[in-house]
Structures are given as structure tokens and as C-alpha cells.
Specification:
alpha+beta; 3-stranded antiparallel β-sheet; 11 helices; globular
Length: 286
Amino acid sequence: MREIHELLNQRWVLKKRTPELYFKLKDQYEFYKPFFRDKLGYNILINPLLIKAEKIPGRSEVWMGIQAFETPQAYVFLCLVLMFLEEKDIEEQFVLSQITEFLQNHYPGEKLDWTIFSKRKVLIQVLKFCSEEGLIVINDGNESGFTGSIGSVEVLYENTGASKYFMRRFNFDVSEVRNFQDIERSEWQSQDKDRGLFRRYRVYRRLVMSPIVYQDNEEDQDYLYIKKQRSMLENDFTKYIQADFHLHKNGAILMMFDNLQLADVFPNRKNISDIVLQLCQIIQRE
């Protein structure tokens, strides 16, 4: 089902940006709700602005994150921009200088110096990401000029209102959280992590969100579940996302049908895919 692929593949589906897809997903909600709710344990948010599946990985991986961000400071800037947008109404306009002033006043620790090129570059990366994700709309101007000089450009933005649904809402106090392991422990602290619903959610999430699920060891509870529930997994993935489920000795993987592709697949048209395939051929030959 192509609509479910879009919901899994995108952060959200914005009504204003893709109204046809938005209404298709809204109409077919009762069909895909059991898969998201009962198998993945994901909440589906539907409101007049957007439809969003609250996608949480089964296991945190080193490759997860925002690909456009190159430094931890970009994530700090993003959080501050979200704070800035929190105070704005839907369709309220603002200019770039208001953002830079807000970040300067609320940045933790050191005082931001916008005369430093690297700081301006990071902010532009964050604002471009916000624009691509539909948090803001550029009504006039181009922020790329800000990279060259702090006073050389002014840009007019508009708040879409989607920023209120960007951050995940936790069901526990995050004030004591220091790393992602704390989040994973706190989320399921009242349950046995290798039994019941939690294990099912974790396995389905890993299979859907990760390129491959490897067997860690002979006692790997996730992999034992995969082998035991193979038939159910095959039926669910065929029915809901039209994918072939492949189970091997030390790895489980979903293979998408040719006419249904996600955003990032292997092999693709990048040179690195050709290099990897050629390397695999050499390894097989040896």
C-alpha cells in the first residue's frame, strides 16, 4: 500500500503540501491502524494540519539522525528555533533577524557571535531543514546570503504551525535524562523488555526502520522471536507494506517490491552502490 509507505517514509504528511495523499490516508485510517497500533506500537496523529506516525526505532543506531546536520550545535539551534516557533501563531510572519536575536538571547552558555562564519552556516542548515520539513515557509528573500555576511540579507518567513508536532511527547520526566539509553530504559521501565508487547513492538520497529536485523548471539531474544513468528511476520509485511520477508541464519531483512521503493534503498544510483557491489563480487570470487 503506497500510502502506508509514505507515512513510514516521511516525517509527516502535510495537508497543505500534499492534500490528495492527506485525504487518502485519512480515509484509509481504519485499514492501517491495526498495523501501526498493534504491531509497531505507533500512535497516529491526525489533525487539520497533518497526519503523522510517531515513529520510534526499536533500537538506536549510529546512523540515525538528521543527515543535513554536521555538528551537535545544529541540534541545539533546531531546538531553539522550535522554541521560537512555539510563540508564533499559524501563518504568522517573522524575519531572519528575529530568529538570530532569539537564538542569541537563549543560547546556553557562551554568547553567540554571528560574525563567525561557522555559526551562520549551521543556522542556515537548520533553517533549510525546517523549510524542507514544512515547519516554516519562505515568503520573500533567500537565507543563503546570510552565510556571506550577517547584515547583508533579510528573509521573510511564515510559521505553518507544524512545529508543535515535531518533538516527541514523552510519558515520563525527561529532566533527568542524560543520554539515549536513559530514554530507552525509562520508556519501558515497568515491563520486561524481552517479553510481551515490548518485544513485538521492538522487533517490528527494527525490521521496518533498519536496513537489516542481525542476530547478536545465540540468546538474542529479538532473533528468537523472529524465527518463531516467521509466518506472522511474512503475512503482516505482505498485507500492509507489500514487502518480502527474508530470514537467514544471522540476518532478517525486508525486500521491497520493484514498484514500491522507499527514499533510500540499496542499490541506488550513487557511485558507492556500484563500489559495494563490485567489492562483494570480489569477496565471493575469493
